[in-house]
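Before drawing any conclusions, I looked closely at one protein, both as residues and as discrete backbone shape codes, quoted below without any editing:
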Amino acid sequence: MTQQIPPDPESTNKDGLKKLILRLPIVIGEAVKDKAAQWSDSSKLREERVALEWNEATVNAVKTEIEDLLRRKFAHGGLAETWTEDELQLAEEIANATRKSEISNITRTEAYWTIYEQYPELHWAFLAHMVSRNAGWWMTDLKGSRLQNVLDEEEKKSIYRFFERSNALIFQDAYPQLLLYSKSREIGRSLFHLLPYFHVSRFMEPFWQRFWIDRSSPLLTVGLIINEQNYIDKQVFRHPHYQISLDEIHESFLIQLLSMNHIIFPLLENSGNIYGLKQQESAASGRDCPESYAAHRLAGRSVINPVSLPARIALGKSLYAMLFGLRAVHSGAQRFAACVPHTGSRADYWPDLFTANKAEALTPVREGSELPQGETLPAGQRLYSPKLLDAWGDAPYEPILREDWFKDHSALDGISAPQPPYLCDVSREHRYGVMRSAFPEGAAD
């Protein structure tokens, strides 16, 4: 019987290092090529800029009003409210409408889009709609084929509750504000003195009162970004039940997370038929869509430091400037939002890579599968990305803290003109991240 000699670990390591060194020029070359392509693709999206009106005099006036609110609060120990019976009835109508629309990520995302369609000056509503779609995609990723063997069920539930609570809390705080604007438009006078009824921070009233006068959409959007990120900071990111320490997440999940760290805006053009949707189908869903669709690109940004409050505020402002400051991004994203109903499945935007039908998916991904080089995967071999309602049921969460986060002048630091990023096309980067997580063995070769 021939005795087998175990492999020499040192020799194996040397062989691996040799392969890595030999492949290094190729990897560097591919990285340089991809980055150059990203710059080129991004420059096309940046060709036509749209000026976001930013009046420093108005900004300074709002800051002064906010500082005055702080002084009055500290001087009097709080501000008393007096509302009429009619105002209380109207406020309760808004509260009821909010409860009806906050059932799930699907209903919240649709509610944002509906009010934006009615009042396109509410830029934040469109931004919230697109970001809320991303929250849905992140939640279904946890049940998709790419993460099926990475986390156990309890870990998946914990991360799902983190995304769900963030999405729900922002809606609960912001949507009544949007409806209050709608009611103000209906009756022809400002109702923003009712904001405290909904436990909205005092920080927001100067923004809304100024918006009622001059319709300065960028300033209001920046105010809402600062407010909502501060609102969820204590209730989610610093809440002991929801804190997710990167040190406690399995290393393999961090690799998978690389394909989940993009906030993307799918861009849809009016030609071709990538979605296979027919005009009568879109009409039946209440959406005025073109008869056919073209392959789209993805605009977006990477989430670098989600735990940092200033970083999240800066990211929100950058996404806003991209969405409304670059005409190609705005028109493509708006067409996508109008024509593609949100289901939570990534098949919503890349149906040639993902499928919501588990029976038609490549699940599980074969060990050692080669990293696909094309733009699509053939039918029957696509990645499973379920619809949100198929993946998760209702998830009740803990009571909400009714405390105004606005305590000092630090929030004023984020009030500055939004600027779009130079690198705004993430199509190649996102696709590679998706494929790398789905075909890890092939990606590593």
User: Anything to note?
Assistant: The beta strands are 262-266, 298-302, 354-355, 383-384. The chain has one domain: 86-444. The first strand starts at residue 262 and ends at 266. The CA atoms of residues 106 and 342 lie 7 Å apart.
